[in-house]
Amino acid sequence: AMAAGVPDPQSRFGHSVKGLLTEKVNACGTDVIALTKQVLKGSRSSELLGQAARNMVLQEDAILHSEDSLRKMAIITTHLQYQQEAIQKNVELSSNLQDQLKHLLK
After folding, report:
1. Please, are residues 8 and 2 in contact by the beta-carbon 8 Å criterion?
2. pTM of the prediction?
3. Contact predicate 82/89, CB 8 Å
4. Which of 1, 16, 37, 96 is the most exposed place for a label (fewest CB within 10 A)?
5. Nearest-angstrom CA–CA distance, 66 and 72
6. In angstroms, rounded to a whole number, what is the distance separating the alpha carbons of residues 13 and 9?
7. Could you state, in order of their start, the residue ranges of all structural domains in the chain?
8. How would you label 55-69 residue by residue, b for 16+ Cβ within 10 Å and e otherwise?
């Protein structure tokens, strides 16, 4: 018979296996938590990268649109300059005609 208070080898083995399992489960839990944090951080950073990419595309669009607008404005400015020159010539012609008319009507 066993002496009181001394566990038999089998139950001691059982305890040590339980202890090891508990340690392993705890370590595994810690690893899972760390991994989850890492994945969340990763998804957050990919989310931020995606946002940055979208912003860049929007800015690029805005820049291209601005360039297009500037080109159109340059064309309009050129047309306006031509019209102004034409109007100026017409004004000069008409004042010449007025002078001629005055001379004729004298």
Report:
1. yes
2. 0.44
3. no
4. 1
5. 10
6. 6
7. 20-105
8. eeeeeeeeeeeeeee
Q: What is the three-state SS of 27-94?
A: HHHHHHHHHHHHHHHHHHHHHHHHHHHHHHHHHHHHHHHHHHHHHHHHHHHHHHHHHHHHHHHHHHHH
Residue 54 structure tokens: 């979208």
